[in-house]
Amino acid sequence: MTSNFLQRYLSDRTFYKIQSQTIIDNPDQRIVDDLNSFTSTALAFSLTLFNAAIDLISFSNILYTIYPPLFLVLISYSIGGTAISIFLGKGLVTLNFLQEKKEADFRYGLVRVRENAESIAFYGGEDNELQLLLQRFTSAFENLSQLLISSRNLEFFTNGYRYLIQILPAAVVAPMYFSGKIEFGVINQSVSAFNHILGDVSLIVYQFQAITAFSAVIDRLGEFDDVLDGSRSKCLSDPMEHINLTCSYVKGSQVLDCNGSIRANMSLRLLDVENLSLKTPQSNSILVRDLSFAIDEKDHLLVIGPSGSGKTSLLRALAGLWSTGKGKITFYVENEADALPLTSSDVAPVEVNSTNMNEELGRPIYNNSRSVFFLPQRPYMVLGTLRQQLLYPTWTEEGIVSDGTKPRDSLPFLTRVPKSENVDVKRSVPIPTTDNLIQVLEDVRLGYILSRFRSLDSIYEWSNVLSLGEQQRLAFARLLLSKPKLALMDESTSALDEVNEAHLYEKISTAGITYISIGHRRTLYAYHSKVLQISSADADADSKQRNWNIEPIDHDSLPNFLKL
Question: Would you call 179 exposed, middle or buried from its count of C-beta atoms within 10 A (0-12, 13-18, 19+)?
Fold first, then answer.
């Protein structure tokens, strides 16, 4: 079950939608704790129910033969006890559900302190963090107090229910013994059969607290399963307007312009953005209005603008992470293997245009393809070795170790990557050798970390032991190894000095990588051929005025511009 939930959680970018739209709380706790509780409790209940059924069948005939009214009284007693238990414990399901959530929130607060320890220490925010954690703990403790009170009341009734009727079988059967209708051993037999049947038919009464806790786990897993299954809630439903993100496989070396004519510029077209408008998910405020531009090979674009104008939202839309708005984004790839099947429900397919020289596949670009690579401002550091940091995300180091030996046998469903829509089984890209990895570290001026950490196979908490500047250079190493056609970079050199920034841009340009950069430094103009300036959009939703301007960069006048 864990493998199944993980596969669906990490497919179709569901994990991103859950986090960005706050659809459900604590998916990690549901995968780890709730799945464990569900499987263990379900197994225990199944065995208990099976044993109770066998026991009930075995002893019912005995008790019914001895004295039928006693059997009917016992059934009526158990039904009444079950009804009273449900009445007394009806709030336990909600309390258990909330307890799971509040405990998970408290643990999440502790994890945030661990992950942001340096920032908290710099701010001196220990008292604030303590106050926030105590608030979450108090909330969990107060809910636990209510849960214990309800459990105590239910336990009082359960104990009384269990012992109140114990004398009944002996009291009913004893007169029959004195009248000579039965032998003395039948009394013990009736008491034993009565107690067995009482335990069997009172299973709900005796196990009610465990059942309510199990019900809360089922509710949480059911809610999670609905999200993963695509039985979409309103948060995951497709908007009225959507951004059409597609990928076209280029058969020839030419791409037609929008008017159907062949472009005079014979360089390879990589990206078309047509009438793209970006809106905020909740308020539907306009960020960018009717943006249109094209990117050809070696046509480097710099995106600038004030904070909050929608620069990062534009890159998110290009990466398929932002679907609120309208317009069309088309990526062009030479390798058909990069045109992968549809992977997002937020993207609508496009009809095939037979007049175009390209095969319009109606498929979104896939982040792990070799055509497009995304570099965020704060690179993601995976859990693993330095080698795995460099290979991420283009190559999966499944079944590969540094000495070339095969890993030990393990459960296949835990080691095998499932063949799904999101995994390209046709693409076979050679994994870089150790020499390649060492060379790329030298290229981004990180060669010294090999001596610091001894080897490529050392394991550390890389987000803590590497500075942000080193992490950004490591991200450029990934980019140089992957060698995509197009790179989308969101202030990916913000933590670097100008010398290292110039060196890295020179390296990726020499590697033949076309890039779209977001940045604020004037020095970035020197590494780009065009600049897209986005201003804050007009608050009037009906306004048609565009809030962007794109123009070529005049490198001859650039020195004077940089002195301003």
Answer: exposed
- Could you give the C-alpha distances from 387 to 121, 353, 460, 468, in angstroms and in order? 31, 43, 12, 18
Give the model confidence (pLDDT) of 391-435 as tens digits.
Answer: 988 886 543 444 444 445 555 555 544 444 444 433 456 789 999
Segment among 78-92, 336-350, 491-505, 533-547 with least mean pLDDT: 336-350
Please check whether residue 271 is in contact with residue 277, taking contact to mean a CB–CB distance below 8 angstroms: no
Q: Is the peptide bond before 393 cis (omega within 30 degrees of 0)?
A: yes
User: Phi, psi (5° rounding) for residue 481?
Assistant: -70, -40
User: Nearest to residue 2, comparing CAs of 34, 44, 45, 43?
Assistant: 34
The region, left, alpha or beta by phi > 0 then psi within -120 to 50, assigned to residue 339 is beta
Residue 227 tokens, joined: 């999200």
**Helices 68-88 + 168-178 axis angle, to 10:** 170
Closest CA to 516 of 492, 494, 488, 491: 488
Could you tell me how many residues make up the chain?
A: 564
Which residues have CB under 8 Å from 531's CB, separation 6+? 301, 302, 303, 304, 525, 550, 551, 552, 553
DSSP state of 514: E
What CA dihedral angle connects 476, 482, 488 and 490, to 10 degrees? -30
SS3 state at 556 = coil
Cβ atoms of 395 and 383 closer than 8 Å: no
Amino acid identity of residue 102, one-letter, is: K
- Per the CB < 8 A criterion, the answer to whether 252 and 130 are in contact is no
- Structure tokens belonging to residue 194: 């009565």
Distance, CA of 196 to chain centre:
48
Distances (CA, A) of 135 to 119, 319, 483, 510: 21, 38, 49, 54
Please state the φ and ψ torsions of residue 331, each to the nearest 5 degrees: -100, 145
Pairing of strands 514-518, 301-304: parallel
What is the sign, positive or negative, of the torsion defined by CA atoms of 178, 179, 183, 187?
negative
330, 307 in Cβ contact below 8 A?
Answer: no
For the ranges 56-60, 95-99, 199-203, 254-258, the lowest mean pLDDT is seen at 254-258
Residue 546 token pair? 């565009």
